[in-house]
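Extended Data, panel c. Modelled sequence:
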Amino acid sequence: MRTRNILWPTDFSDTASHALRYAIEMANLYNVGIRILNVIDQPLGDENYMVLAITPEELAKTMEDAAAKQMHELLAQLKTELKVETVIRRGDAVTEILAEANSDEIGMVVIASHGRTGLSHFLHDNVAEEVANKAKCPVLVVK
C-alpha cells in the first residue's frame, strides 16, 4: 500500500468530487500518486432497428471525448504536487474499476457511494459496494 498509487474512480458527480479530497489526503499521507479512472458505458444498438442515428462506436467516441474534456477541466482545477494519472475506459464500471484496482500498481481505492437506500438501492447498480467486496486492496467508501 505504501508504495502503490491511490485509485479514484469518478463519474464526475459532486459525490465523486467529495471523495477526491480523501484520495488526495491518503496519497499525501503515503507519498504516492493518484490514478483517476472514468468508465464509459459501452453503448448498445441494433443496426436492424436503426434505433441510433449514429453507430454505437461513434456514440462511444463522443462520450470518450466528453469525458476527456471533463478530465482535463478537473486536472486544471486540481492543485497538488502529487503525481496524477488519468485513465478513461469503456465497459462495465465494476469490471473496469476492479481490473484497475487489482493491478499491481494500485494500493488503495477511494470511491464515492451515492448513498442510495430502499427501493433505489435495489434498482441501481451499487458500484462502490461491489468494488469494496471484490477488490483485493483496501477500499475507502466515501458518502
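Residues 117-124 have pLDDT under 50 and may be disordered. This feature is highlighted in the accompanying rendering.
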